[in-house]
Amino acid sequence: AADGPPGGTRRDRGGTGRQARSRSSPARPAQKRKPTYLELARAGYQELVNAIIRPPRSKYSLEALGPDEFTFCGADFERRDFGVVNERGLVLECSMWRRKDDDDDDEDDY
Q: How far, in Å, are 8, 52, 61, 79, 82 from residue 97 at the CA level?
């Protein structure tokens, strides 16, 4: 046997028949260190910033906005959904409610 028995032991080279331990240290489970108060404060601050400044985008269907038409205080209103292209070329989905009886039906005003 060239390497000796498994298990981290080997035969003594002196021929005494005793087994010597391997020089490598025994494997220890990796201990997870506790974060410092400063690290906890930084992580909490970053979560707060992400929640307020960069909140996750909501995904919903147009049906979730409610009916296309409704009556409020005796007046009829309608919702118009449209898109606006921003400077980066992304389409921003928009909705606008207006009175149904408005005489100005020009679609180019939006």
A: 77, 27, 17, 4, 11
- Is residue 48 helix, strand or coil? helix
Cβ contact 46:56 at 8 Å: no
Q: What is the mean pLDDT of residues 11-17?
A: 52
Residues 6+ apart with CB under 8 A from 3: 10
Average pLDDT of the chain, as a whole number: 76
Tell me the two tokens of residue 81.
Answer: 């959904």
Phi, psi of 61 (to 5 degrees): -90, 165
Query: What is the Cβ-side half-sphere exposure of residue 100, based on CA atoms within 13 angstroms?
Result: 11
The overall pTM is greater than 0.85: no
Residue 97 in contact with residue 110, Cβ under 8 Å?
no
Alpha carbons within 13 angstroms on the beta-carbon side of residue 46 total: 6
In this prediction, residue 102 has a pLDDT band, given cuts at 50, 70 and 90, of confident
